[in-house]
Each structure stands twice: as structure tokens, then as C-alpha cells.
């Protein structure tokens, strides 16, 4: 981390990008300020309609989604979604995805300067970058180029996270490249490339991917002992979160579990940090 960066997360449990909606839905199940952070769905420069229905299906121990990064674009995010999240007391991590290095830089500039954005998460890990038209960051040098363009104009004090795919063969190399290019922390990982039953490309998430993502987190933590690593993949309960922390993660993100039980992240946060507020249901006891 650079000297001006401060770790903004008061506990180690965050939501995963795209899995907490716009925040309002999740806030009916718990206090967003009790989470370490709320990661927004990935924001693109222009609005995206996303893929056609069905876009989420269950598979054994997981979900396959083909949401296609549906979002209102940066203007809609700044005008509607961000103020709502701040009203709810969330520590906001804005996730960004671009079609080019220039778009990533522009997103980092505008979102990084927005009041209340504590961190940017650079999505370098969409399961189907070719099909989505997004910048292809599969090679470590490509991922590092994106990070470099985001870092250049970023406001001091905004933490820069690089979200990497959990590619066992390349993840440590990619993590080193993005840290050298200015990432303050690496998030591992995203949904793995998969297919919906009709053959359309999608991403597999949930418990099915946990052992694979956990291995990647352990490898990066071993290879880069000074780096801050955030683990994301199949966390369903406290035990899963602790496994990631024991493997060297500084924090975790909870994604698919929120579709099964939206209280999951609040319960894990309370267990790991009782000062984070009442566990869900305890406040009316
Ligand atoms: C419905 C859905 C939407 C998602 N949208 C995004 C997104 O916009 N940006 C992103 O970086 N990851 C997105 N993800 C991936 C999650 O943030 C997370 O990396 C992945 O699902 C693995 O964690 P999990 O097994 O806990 O779900 C999405 C996942 C799901 C299931």
C-alpha cells in the first residue's frame, strides 16, 4: 500500500460485486454499516442491458450466471446508486469494468473522485471477456496495464483493488504484476467460465468453486507475503471465511450465498467482529 492509503474496512467481511444488488435490497436484512464494505456491481462507462433471460440458474453446489454486467452506466451510478448506498451507511467499494485502457482510466478518474467512494475494485476477471466486449486482461501484462492506467489519476486515499480470476497456473504471476503496477490489494477471484444449460457462456460461482479459489489465495499469500489479499469464492458460513483468513487473506467477500440467505455476510461479520453490531435477529431479543 502506498503511504497515503488507509485500509478502510473496519471488519474483514465485504459483499462481492454484483451480489448485493443496489444495496437497498440487502439493507432490509441487516445494517450495511456493519459490513467491512459493500462492493457495487461492476460499473461501465455506458449503460449495459445485460444478457437475455434466463440469466441465473442453479447447478450442483453453485450458480451459473450470465448477467452480462447489467448496469446503468457511470452517470446513473453517481446520480442514483451511490447516494443511496451512502444514505444506508455503506463503506462503498466501486467496481469498474472497461472496454479499453482509456475507459478504465476514465472510470477510475470519475468514480475515484466521487465523495464517499473509499475504494475502487478493478474487475480484471469477467468469466467471458471476449464475449462481453470488455478489455481482455487475461495476461499478466494486460492486467498490469489496466492497473497502471487506473492508478495514474486516482485521488489520494482511495484504495485500489485488482480483482483477478482464480487461474491456478497464472494467479501468483498476475498478482505480482498488478501489485507492481500500483494495486493496494488483490481480490481473488471471480466466477469461473462455465455454460448455462442452453450452452450460452456464463460464470460458475458458489461452494463448487471454493476449494479452487482457496488454493489461489493460499498461493498468492505465499508468493507475496506483504500483499493484502481478499478471498472471494463460495463462502457460505463462518468456517469458510476462517479458512480463507487462515490461508493468508486479510478479508473476504460473500457473493452467491446472499441469494440463498441474504443475512450471510451480516452473520459472518458479527461472528468475526462482535463490535460490528447485533447479529441478525438479535436486536429485537
Ligand atoms: C449474479 C452475479 C452477478 C455478479 N456480478 C459481478 C459483477 O458485476 N462484477 C464482478 O466483478 N463480479 C460479479 N460477480 C462475481 C462475484 O462478485 C464473485 O466474484 C463470484 O460470484 C465468486 O464468489 P461467490 O462464489 O461467493 O459467489 C457476480 C456473481 C453473481 C453470482
Question: What ligand molecules are bound, each kind once?
Answer: flavin mononucleotide
Instruction: Count all strands and give the number.
Output: 12
Corresponding CATH superfamily: Aldolase class I
Distance between the termini: 42 Å
The class by helix and strand makeup works out as alpha/beta
> What is the overall silhouette?
globular
Q: Tally the helices.
A: 10
How much is the radius of gyration in Å?
17 Å
SSE order, one letter for each helix or strand: EHEEEHEHEHHEHEEEHEHEHH
CATH architecture: Alpha-Beta Barrel
Q: What is the fold's blueprint, element by element?
A:
Layout: E1 13-15, H1 24-27, E2 38-39, E3 56-59, E4 62-65, H2 73-87, E5 92-96, H3 101-112, E6 117-123, H4 129-132, H5 140-152, E7 159-164, H6 171-180, E8 185-188, E9 192-195, E10 201-205, H7 210-223, E11 228-232, H8 238-246, E12 251-254, H9 257-260, H10 264-272
Helix pairs in contact: 3-5, 5-6, 6-7
Bound molecules: flavin mononucleotide (FMN).
Walk me through what this model shows.
The protein has 285 residues and is α/β, with parallel strands linked by helices. The chain has a single domain (13-284), classed as TIM Barrel (Alpha-Beta Barrel). It is 33% helix and 19% strand. It contains 10 helices and 12 strands. It has an 8-stranded parallel beta sheet with strand order 1-12-11-8-7-6-5-2. The protein has a 4-stranded antiparallel beta sheet with strand order 3-4-10-9, with no helix packed on it. Strand 7 (159-164), helix 6 and strand 8 form a beta-alpha-beta unit. Helix 3 (101-112) packs parallel to helix 5 (140-152), helix 5 (140-152) packs parallel to helix 6 and helix 6 (171-180) crosses helix 7 (210-223). The longest helix is centred in the first third of the chain and has 15 residues, at 73-87. The mean pLDDT is 94. The structure holds flavin mononucleotide (FMN). Flavin mononucleotide (FMN) is lined by residues 16-19, 41-42, 56, 63, 65, 67, 69, 95, 123, 163, 190-191, 205-206, 209, 232-235, 254-256.
Amino acid at each position: 500500500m502506498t503511504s497515503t492509503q488507509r485500509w478502510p474496512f473496519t471488519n474483514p467481511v465485504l459483499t462481492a460485486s454484483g451480489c448485493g444488488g443496489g444495496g437497498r435490497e440487502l439493507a432490509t436484512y441487516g445494517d450495511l454499516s456493519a459490513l467491512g464494505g459493500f462492493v457495487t456491481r461492476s460499473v461501465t462507462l455506458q449503460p449495459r442491458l445485460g444478457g437475455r433471460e434466463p440469466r441465473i440458474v442453479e447447478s450442483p453446489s453453485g450458480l451459473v450466471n450470465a448477467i452480462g454486467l447489467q448496469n446503468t452506466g457511470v452517470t446513473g451510478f453517481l446520480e442514483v446508486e451511490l447516494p443511496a448506498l451512502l444514505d444506508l451507511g455503506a463503506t462503498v467499494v466501486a467496481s469498474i469494468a472497461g472496454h479499453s485502457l482509456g475507459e478504465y482510466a476514465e472510470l477510475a478518474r470519475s468514480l475515484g473522485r466521487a465523495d464517499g467512494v473509499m475504494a475502487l475494485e478493478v474487475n480484471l476477471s469477467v468469466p467471458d471477456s471476449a464475449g462481453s466486449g470488455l478489455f481482455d486482461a487475461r495476461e499478466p501484462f494486460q492486467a498490469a496495464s489496466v492497473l497502471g492506467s487506473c492508478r495514474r489519476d486516482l485521488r489520494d486515499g482511495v484504495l485500489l483493488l485488482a480483482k483477478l480470476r482464480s487461474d491456478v497456473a497464472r494467479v501468483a504471476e498476475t498478482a505480482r504484476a498488478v501489485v507492481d503496477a500500483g494495486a493496494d490489494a488483490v481480490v481473488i477471484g471471480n466466477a469461473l467460465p462455465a455454460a448455462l444449460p442452453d450452452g450460452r457462456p456464463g460464470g460458475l460461482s458458489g461452494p463448487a468453486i471454493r476449494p479452487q479459489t482457496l488454493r489461489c489465495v493460499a498461493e498468492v499469500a505465499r508468493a507475496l507475503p506483504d500483499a493484502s489479499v481478499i478471498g472471494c469464492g463460495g463462502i457460505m458460513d463462518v468456517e469458510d471465511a476462517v479458512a480463507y483468513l487462515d490461508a493468508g487473506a486479510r478479508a473476504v467477500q460473500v457473493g452467491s450465498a446472499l441469494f440463498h440467505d441474504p443475512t450471510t455476510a451480516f452473520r459472518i461479520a458479527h461472528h468475526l467482529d462482535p463490535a460490528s453490531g447485533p447479529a441478525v435477529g438479535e436486536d429485537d431479543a
